[in-house]
Write a structure and sequence with these properties.
- This protein has 20 helices and 15 strands.
- It has 455 residues and is α/β, with parallel strands linked by helices.
- It has a domain of 267 residues: Rossmann fold (3-Layer(aba) Sandwich).
- It has a seven-stranded mixed β-sheet with strand order 1-4-5-15-10-11-14, sandwiched between helices. Strands 8-7-6-9 form a four-stranded parallel β-sheet, with helices on both faces. A two-stranded antiparallel ribbon has the order 2-3.
- The longest helix has 20 residues.
- Bound molecules: pyridoxal-5'-phosphate (PLP).
């Protein structure tokens, strides 16, 4: 039995898989908040290039990956798959546990899988500068790397608390050539408004998105880029699941359950959708479990409604599970999972019960992360420990039931730049977060009052 299952560069997928083509209920359209009409390309073209807008609305089952993109993918793809033999032994489980490791990319997570094609399509259309937001810094680093590959300027609005707490992420972005500003900043009206009310705010992803969009709207040659949530982002990540399927084929296996953490839904979609295709087309019965933090539980405690993607309300309204666009989650270390909504595609699939969701507290996640480090030797990103924790739950259930099920999870990033999180965990400074429905009520009421949710 092989410990790791490697593919050749020629095995890098040639197409991205578009799950929309196989969804029994197609996702509802995004709406223009002013008119209440479906948002058209003209609503999106000030901030995104046409190449990506076409992918955003495409119903084609597969979309070809440009050669220039595959060429850059070769730096880290195909990513390795491992059989978690040491973890299985420690758990004394009859289950087989496999994980796909995306931490081998230039920024240490799955994010470059979409950063590279996004910058490619911008370059094709003559864009000179790209703005974005970043929380913990994973997305900003990935976009900075991709912009360096195509010689485009990169401007990153980094949530203030992370800017102060994770200085090395900022230096990584600077090394790839990006300019990084703490958000809220005084460079935008959205930022200035927030600072006027609360000069000491720690910032949020929603505010940083507003700032980055505002900058893009002001300049013809500047566009905006988002690292999760949107259809085209989820599409690009499907290289993960396609490779994983081939790797499991070599191992003579097929997953009974696929597990991944969910912030906006891109890495979960990336590993799940190619297998979900086989459920929808061939009657396979794989389960798909998205794992969210108990402090930001949009899938398990949010409501399916139209809501904004950012706090200032610059984006179109999206039909999704949401905690309300003004919801500020507790300052947990898994920064990439602190987003108020889930992607339209994952939301619709959950509504249709084609995928499942579970919320886990951060102490269980760090405990799982430490066991994983000791057994498998990889220190996982705090986000990634959510996937590990659920994989362990599945393996323990298999033991109780005496079944030999096959578990596949996505190890979406390493935690080498997150060691302060582990330090806090060992020092006993982390606690579980008691989430109360009271916090939610007001935020959700504001969203229910939006026109499309009233009708
Ligand atoms: C960004 C990020 C996430 C969350 O984003 P998704 O779009 O849900 O994948 C999770 N893990 C890591 C390591 C990240 O960088």
């Amino acid at each position: 039995m092989a410990k790791k299952i490697q593919l050749n560069e020629s095995d890098i997928p040639t197409h991205w898989y578009n799950v929309i083509s196989d969804m029994p209920n197609k996702p509802q359209p995004p709406l223009n908040p002013e008119t209440g009409e479906p948002a058209g390309p003209e609503d999106l073209s000030p901030i995104f290039p046409m190449g990506l807008i076409e992918q955003e609305v495409s119903a084609e089952p597969k979309i070809e990956i440009p050669d220039e993109v595959r060429d850059i993918y070769r730096i880290w793809r195909p990513s390795p798959m491992y059989r978690a033999t040491q973890l299985e032994k420690a758990l004394d489980t009859p289950a087989k546990i496999y994980y796909k490791y995306e931490g081998v990319s230039p920024s240490g997570s799955h994010k470059p899988n979409t950063a590279v094609p996004q910058v490619y399509y911008n370059k094709q259309e003559g864009v000179k500068s790209i703005t974005t937001e970043t929380g913990a810094g994973q997305w900003g680093t990935a976009l900075a790397f991709a912009c360096a590959q195509f010689d485009i300027n990169c401007e990153v609005y980094m949530v203030r608390i992370s800017y102060d707490q994770k200085p090395y992420r900022k230096v990584m972005m600077n090394t790839f050539g990006a300019d990084v500003y703490p958000s809220p900043s005084d460079r935008t009206q959205a930022g200035r408004n927030v600072l006027a009310k609360d000069p000491d705010t720690s910032g949020s992803l929603g505010i940083a998105i507003s700032e980055a969009i505002e900058r893009a709207v002001q300049d013809e040659q500047t566009k905006y880029s988002l690292g999760s949530v949107l259809n085209h982002v989820l599409l690009h990540q499907t290289v993960i699941g396609q490779e994983a399927m081939k790797q499991l084929e070599y191992a003579g296996d097929y997953p009974d359950v696929v597990v991944a953490p969910l912030g906006g839904g891109s890495n979960f979609a990336g590993i799940s959708f190619p297998f979900l295709k086989n459920n929808l087309r061939e009657g396979k019965n794989t389960r798909f479990v998205a794992v969210e933090p108990a402090s930001c539980p949009k899938l398990t405690k949010g409501e399916f409604m139209y809501d904004f993607g950012d706090s200032a309300g610059y984006t179109p309204l999206l039909p999704m599970y949401t905690l309300g666009h003004n919801f500020t989650p507790a300052a947990i270390h898994a920064g990439g999972l602190r987003y108020h909504g889930a992607s339209v595609l994952c939301s619709q699939l959950l509504k249709d019960e084609l995928i499942e969701a579970v919320a886990i507290q951060q102490l269980e996640c760090f405990e799982a992360g430490v066991l994983f480090a000791k057994t498998e030797g990889i220190i996982a990103a705090p986000e990634a420990t959510h996937g590990i924790a659920q994989a362990i739950r599945e393996a323990e259930r298999a033991k109780e039931e005496g079944t030999e099920k096959t578990i596949l999870f996505n190890l979406c990033g390493h935690g080498f730049v997150d060691m302060s999180a582990y330090e806090d965990y060992f020092a006993g400074k982390l606690s579980d977060h008691s989430f109360t429905d009271e916090q939610l009520k007001q935020n959700l009421q504001e969203v229910r009052d939006l026109a499309p949710n009233r009708g």
